[in-house]
Recover the amino acids of this structure.
């Protein structure tokens, strides 16, 4: 039985993670990469660069493909790419990819376009939004919510009933206590301990985590 064909958007270190997980999962057949910064026809990770987002309709028609995943690590850049794709091709849809070693409990919802890396644990009744990224060995506990375009860095651990806002990034090794809420477009720095709620549009870090400054939407953090 033939696999469904998909495209990968982006040619970076994050795209390498994405490609590896798709290959190991074995559900989809990657037919090429879409990236505007690498010359068309170049081979990247054994796949051909087919063109840029501006070429998407032509690529979709030629290869008979209408699905894919965005391999970009920065949350806001991933949002911008998804927006650009849907502007060019409104009918294009996204797939999620889950590493075979991830543990996903019952009643977990994983949104389209999300990427779950090796060793991740997602426990029951948790919701992962669209275009999210959960890095190696992160753990998201029961009844939690990871909103669209947000991310958990490697080794993050949360208690249950945690809410993480839209387009927010949780850094490497952060611990978030049960029932806490972190706002939209915020960043929690590596190694922090979150014991109280974090506001929207801020950078917070430390043990315990405190807000250190305000943050603009789309401001780089990687």
């Amino acid at each position: 039985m033939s696999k469904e064909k998909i495209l990968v958007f982006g040619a970076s270190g994050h795209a390498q993670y994405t490609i590896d997980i798709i290959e190991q999962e074995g559900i989809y057949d990657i037919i090429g990469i879409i990236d505007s910064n690498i010359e068309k026809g170049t081979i990247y990770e054994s796949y051909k660069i087919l063109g840029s987002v501006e070429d998407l309709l032509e690529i979709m028609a030629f290869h008979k493909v209408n699905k894919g995943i965005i391999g970009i690590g920065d949350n806001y850049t991933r949002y911008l790419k998804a927006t650009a794709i849907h502007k060019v091709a409104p009918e294009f849809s996204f797939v999620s990819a889950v590493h075979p070693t991830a543990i996903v409990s019952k009643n977990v919802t994983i949104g389209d376009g999300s990427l779950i890396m090796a060793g991740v644990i997602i426990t029951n009744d948790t919701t992962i939004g669209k275009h999210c990224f959960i890095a190696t060995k992160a753990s998201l506990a029961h009844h939690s919510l990871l909103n669209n375009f947000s991310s958990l860095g490697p080794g993050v651990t949360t208690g249950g009933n945690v809410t993480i806002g839209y387009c927010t990034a949780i850094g490497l090794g952060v611990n978030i206590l049960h029932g806490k809420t972190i706002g939209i477009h915020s960043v929690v720095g590596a190694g922090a301990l979150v014991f109280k709620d974090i506001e929207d549009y801020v950078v917070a870090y430390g043990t315990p985590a405190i807000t250190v400054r305000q943050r603009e939407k789309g401001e780089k953090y990687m």
